[in-house]
Design goal:
heterodimer; A: about 250 residues; eight-stranded parallel barrel; 10 helices; 11 strands; B: about 200 residues; alpha/beta; Rossmann fold; four-stranded mixed sheet; 6 helices; 13 strands; about 25% helix
């Protein structure tokens, strides 16, 4: 037996509420991230990701509260990302009940943050989330962007993920900005390239729209598959994704 | 029968809330604390742990908890190590090739797994030791949540094993000492079953 491929729903949380229309569940307050986390757990999610899009720092307290209440009710791993700026932010999220914290823009701006977090809390809880886009001018054909793909950086995708691993990231999420929201499938090239470049788990993110997309990402080298809208809108159920993966000979829980 | 009291030892950072809630869920009265008197007198002591082996050992020593653990075991009082809280019970560990001394309560060394992808992160099966109390009544096809790069590859007592690139010690039960490499507190309902098995044996 080997470790199961993880299927991970991701929820955007704004000031303690899920704002993007989530409409697949009856009898659930679809704005309440804790209720949704419970529902996804019951459906067989292997982990959960909360992505905090709260703009005002004063409202960020609500995020800690959401994490706290989720950890009290849901007994699968929880990753929290979005707006994490310092090792102290990481500490507070872990103490609130997060198992992993995902770093993106702040790590690009100050890569040492990855090392600080890894040294203090261990690599197992430090996730490097990378927003990448195709760019012919880069050696790998992909560049790293920040601010949800709006800003370009100096980094080639592969240089950055190797550096991130070296600094102590225990997992890498590849968010393909070109594929994001298209539902045309994950960007398999970037997954293949990152898988070959690092020895830590790789999570495919962005573009999932149909059942075969998940198996394709795993065959390209992903250890986990993340999706948001297809789960929220009920066009795909977690159990269906898992049976499709199992049918392709991929181990699932 | 009284509710068994459990202390989750707070000796550093990380998520202790899940362990607290998971143990409450299976009927224990749980306190998360660094108070050694409480850790000494409770019915069951949980030693969690994330991060690096040497850092965890250092934090346990700084708190004075290493003697608390030894004293409890000397009196046959239950202790459950989780993840790095399990690893530090062994003779020794290593990080990036540098050896570190453990508590020496279980024979064996903890070293980096020989696997293509590390950390070993996700849900995996365990082959339970025959006669295991922890895994009693749990389907052998059950998956538990693991996240670790290092593990012991052999020990003494009832050894349940996992596989990631190679065989490793997923759980050990020896007298009052129990230890699991995975996270029962993050392993959903089956994790709760395993914790219930441990809590049931506390009094």
């Amino acid at each position: 037996m080997s470790v199961a491929v993880r299927v991970i729903p991701c929820l955007d949380v704004d000031a303690g509420r899920v704002t993007k229309g989530v409409r697949f569940l009856d009898n659930v307050d679809v704005g309440d991230p804790v209720a949704l986390a419970r529902a996804y757990d019951a459906e067989g999610a292997d982990e959960l990701v909360f992505y905090d899009i709260t703009a005002s720092s004063s409202a960020r307290e609500t995020t800690y509260d959401v994490v706290r209440r989720t950890a009290e009710q849901v007994f699968i791993p929880l990753t929290v990302g979005g707006g994490v700026r310092s090792a102290e932010d990481v500490n507070r999220l872990l103490r609130a009940g997060a198992d992993k914290v995902s770093l993106n823009t702040a790590a690009v701006e100050r890569p040492e943050l990855l090392a600080e977090a890894a040294q203090r809390f261990g690599s197992q809880c430090v996730v490097l989330s990378v927003d990448t886009r195709r760019c012919a001018g880069r050696p790998s054909g992909f560049e790293v962007t920040t601010h949800g793909g709006r800003r370009r950086t100096e980094w080639d995708l592969l240089d950055w993920v190797r550096r991130g691993e070296e600094l102590g990231a225990g997992e890498i999420v590849v968010n393909a900005m070109d594929a994001d929201g298209t539902r045309d499938g994950y960007d398999l090239d970037s997954i293949r390239l990152v898988r070959a470049a690092v020895g830590v788990p790789v999570v495919a993110s962005g573009g999932a729209g149909a059942l075969p997309h998940f198996a394709a990402a795993v065959q390209a080298g992903a250890d986990a598959v993340l999706a948001a809208s297809v789960f929220h809108f009920g066009s795909l159920r977690i159990a269906d994704v898992k049976s499709h993966l199992a049918g392709a000979g991929i181990p699932v829980r | 029968m009284n509710t068994p009291s459990v202390v989750v030892l707070d000796y550093g950072s990380g998520n202790l809330r899940s362990a607290e809630r998971a143990l409450q869920r299976v009927g224990a009265a749980v306190e998360v604390t660094s108070d050694l008197a409480a850790a000494r007198r409770c019915d069951g002591l949980v030693v969690p742990g994330v991060g690096a082996f040497a850092a965890c050992m250092q934090a346990l020593e700084d708190l004075g908890a290493t003697s608390t653990i030894r004293d409890r075991l000397g009196e046959s009082r239950p202790v459950l190590g989780i993840c790095v809280g399990m690893q530090v019970l062994f003779d020794s560990g290593e990080e990036h090739g540098v050896p570190a001394k453990g508590l020496g309560l279980l024979p064996g060394e903890v070293r980096r797994l020989r696997a293509d992808v590390l950390p070993h992160m996700g849900w995996n099966t365990v082959v339970p030791a025959e006669g295991s109390t922890l895994f009693a009544g749990i389907d052998p096809a059950t998956r538990f949540y693991f996240v670790h790069s290092y593990a012991a590859t052999g020990s003494d007592g009832l050894v349940s094993t996992g596989w990631h690139g190679e065989r490793f010690v997923a759980a050990v039960e020896r007298g009052p000492l129990s230890a699991v490499q995975f996270h029962p507190e993050k392993s959903g309902d089956v994790g709760a079953e395993l914790l219930a098995n441990w809590v049931c044996g506390l009094r």
